[in-house]
Structures are given as C-alpha cells and as structure tokens.
Design a protein that fits this description.
Elements: E1 4-5, E2 10-11, H1 17-20, H2 30-39, H3 61-79, E3 90-97, E4 100-110, H4 111-115, E5 119-120, H5 127-140, E6 142-143, E7 147-151, H6 155-167, E8 172-176, E9 179-186, H7 189-200, E10 204-208, H8 210-223, E11 229-236, E12 242-250, H9 254-264, E13 266-270, H10 273-277, E14 283-288, E15 294-299, H11 311-320, E16 335-340, H12 344-349, E17 356-360, H13 366-374, E18 385-386, E19 395-398, H14 401-404
Parallel strand pairs: 5-10, 7-11
Antiparallel strand pairs: 1-4, 2-19, 3-4, 3-9, 4-11, 6-19, 7-10, 8-9, 12-16, 12-17, 12-18, 13-15, 14-15, 14-17
Length: 417
C-alpha cells in the first residue's frame, strides 16, 4: 500500500507562532483573508495567496499571487520565524478544540502512491484549481499545509500515538483562541519501524486536500523528478469529525429560483430553525435571502439505484443541473461553499443578501465515504468538511533547494510562472 517516510521540516519558533499560524484558507472569504493579513502581516496566509485574494489592478492576479506568496515566504525565512532544519523524522500532531481531540502522524507520502490509486479519494476535483496549485508549488517552493489522510484499523499505530504523546515532552505547543496544536517528534527508531510497517499494509483515505494532492502529482510530472513526497498528516478515522459544506448561490433571483423549484417539487415553508435541522429524510432545506430571510423544505425524489443518497448529489441531480443549469464540478463563483455545523443555532445565525439562495446540507456519514473511496467512486466537490482542519504555518517543508541552501532572495525561474 502506501509507504510513509520521515520528513525534514522547519518548525515555527514559539515566539512567532501567534503571528505566523494561519486560519483555514477555505473557511474564509477573500475579503476575510485580506483583513487577516492586514492584522497579521506575517501570517502564513500570505504564502498561500490565491488569485481571488489579489485586488484588481494592472497585473495578472494568478502571477501576482505567486509573486507575493514567494516574497512572504522569503520574508518569514529571512526574519527567522522558523527554526533550523530538523533531521528527517516522523511527528505526531494533535488538534484540540472544546469537546474534541484528534492526533495524526506527520510524514511524507509518495506522489507515486497517489498516482497509483493507493491513496483513496472520494471527491471530484476541478482541473483549473489543480493547475493553479501546481504552479504555486513550483514557484513558491514550499509545503506547509499537510494533505490530510486517514487510516482505518491500525492498532499498532494508535498504540505508538498513545505512548509517545503521554510519555514524551512536546516539541511545540500553541494555543490560538479555542484551538490547541501540539507537536511531538517520534524519536525512537523502533516506533518509526512499527508505524511504517503497520501503515504499509493499510489503505489510506484522503480526507482533505484533494486538489493539493493532485497538484503535487502534476508538479512532479512537470519537474520530471521521481520519488517526490507530499507533506501529509494521517489520522485514525475514528477520531475524525465531519461537518457539511452548505451551498450558497450568489447573483440569483431568489423568488425565481423558488418558483422554479415549486414547479417540480413539493415545497413547504418552515418557521423555526429546529424544523430545518430535524427535517425528514429526503427533504432539502432551502433559504431565500433578503431583508426577511425565509426557510423552506423541498421534497426531492429518491436517488436511482446505484446513485449516492447524499445531499450534494441530490441537489445537483434535481436542482442545480436541470433547473438552474449549474454543474458544480465546473462552476466558478456561482456556487459558494460555506463550511460549518448544521445545528439550530447555525440555522438561526445564517444571513443572506437579497440575491442569494442557500441550500443546507447534511454531513456525509463515515461509512458512505469509506464505501465510495473503496469502490473508486467520487462525490461532488466540497461534500465533506473535517474539523478541526490542519493549519498552515506550524511547520514548513522547503522544496526549492535554493531556499533550503539559504538563498532566500529572488524568485524562481520565469518558466515556473
């Protein structure tokens, strides 16, 4: 199956952690990310800039985003925000929020394993996004956002995790608001051997970072260098918590969308948030924006035999594609994916503009995800949202030899752009 390899990292210095550690990129809007960078100019968000983070000007947003990302990384390295390069090692990485904790193994996994299908995926990808991230990786020359995977049933690994985290002093511990992040080095060669052997016999399931994994593969193919590794973190599947990505349509006439939906399906209005969260199976929750936000339940037909019975598939099959002409796999900007819980408080807190319509998703069950991945199937993009998400800026793996050699000024070759 998938070989895991010790990996050489630079870990953020404790005195820099509060400035450098970044919030989840895809949980923030471009405006949110710009505001965060204004407050925290050394945040690693500066290294993970996307074209949409660049305000309109006389330059190409994609090229400008890569240029600024590289400059931000060079700035962090020059200022000494990260410690010295550590010898190749495995690490344990724990994320804790009130009521939940998960601990994973930080390592390198081969892009060849991803190419061979040994890392099992469950979501569709958008090729333009993959191409953009591959260019970003080539130009910036660093990985700091681990591709998150999960294993299902490796007691020997879980035993090593329990022993090391209980008997070893952490390499680093950082608390940011309600999130505690802790990092341990796995220094015992015997533990490293146990982990590598146990996971070599296990399939791994990609849970977050489908586009980054595909981009790492594309970058290796472009560079023509075999044996490249992806910065990864692998969690026990039983420790993970999955929420939903809700769908928001922007730039639409809510009344017109509601009317078109009513022409095909049974629709009834709801009054309380609890009616949304406790809706019967087969009913989709829909909200129409405006001065007075209104919620509705829509009864959608059961899926045909062999089709996935999950909200993103039902929404696409019955509403987005046939009624609105939207293909989520290729939609660019018309569908906003808003991650988060689906409980009554979240329903009550939702706010929409007058030209927005929301569809409230149920989380995908773990057994459904495993079945889809094992069968080699895929779900629509943004069908799962595992939280807490791994963060960028806690550690960094430099993939550009010039950066690792200490030459931290200047850009990569123009061909990388």
């Amino acid at each position: 199956m998938v070989a895991v390899e010790p990996i050489a990292l630079r870990v953020v210095r404790p005195e820099w952690a509060a400035e450098v550690l970044a919030p989840p990129h895809d949980a923030l809007s471009p405006a949110d990310r710009r505001r965060h960078l204004a407050d925290y100019p050394h945040s690693y968000l500066g290294v993970t800039r996307s074209p949409e983070d660049i305000e309109l000007g006389e330059f190409d947003p994609a090229i400008e985003a890569m240029r600024r990302s590289r400059a931000s990384l060079v700035d962090l390295l020059t200022l000494g925000a990260f410690g010295p390069l550590q010898a190749p090692s495995l690490y344990l990485y724990r994320l804790e929020v009130p009521g939940h904790s998960q601990t994973g193994l930080v390592c390198g996994t081969a892009t060849a394993a991803y190419d061979a299908g040994e890392v099992r995926i469950h979501e569709q990808i958008k090729q333009p996004r993959v191409d953009l991230l591959a260019r970003h990786l080539a130009h910036v020359g660093a990985q700091s956002s681990p591709i998150a995977m999960a294993f299902h049933g490796a007691p020997a690994v879980e035993a090593v995790i329990a022993r090391v985290t209980s008997a070893t002093e952490p390499h680093l511990e950082v608390v940011d608001r309600d999130l505690r992040q802790t990092l341990w080095a796995v220094s015992d060669p015997g533990d490293v051997d146990v982990v590598r052997q146990a996971l070599t016999d296990q399939p791994l399931y990609l849970i977050d970072g489908h586009h980054r994994a595909a981009a790492a593969s594309a970058h290796q193919a472009r560079a023509g260098v075999a044996g490249q590794l992806m910065l990864s973190v692998i969690f026990p599947f039983a420790e993970l918590r999955n929420l939903a990505f809700h769908r928001i349509l922007r730039g639409v006439d809510g009344e017109e969308v509601l009317s078109k939906v009513r022409e095909r399906f049974v629709v009834r209005g709801v009054v309380t948030p609890e009616e949304v969260t406790n809706r019967p199976e087969g009913w989709m929750a829909m909200a129409v924006g405006g001065e007075q936000l209104r919620w509705y339940l829509v009864e959608l037909p059961p899926p045909p035999p062999g089709d996935l019975d999950i909200d993103p598939v039902r929404l696409g099959r019955h509403v987005l594609e046939p009624i609105l002409g939207i293909d989520e796999a290729s939609a660019d900007g018309s569908v906003i994916h808003q991650p988060g819980p689906g409980h009554a408080d979240a329903v009550a807190a939702l706010r929409l503009e007058s030209d927005e319509v929301a569809f409230w998703m149920r989380p995908v069950a773990a057994e459904v995800l495993l079945d889809v991945a094992d069968r080699g199937g895929t779900m629509p993009p943004k069908s799962t949202y595992f939280v807490p998400k791994v963060r960028s800026g806690l550690f960094v793996r430099l993939t550009d030899p010039a950066l690792e050699a200490g030459s931290v000024t200047g850009d990569t070759d123009e061909s990388e752009q």
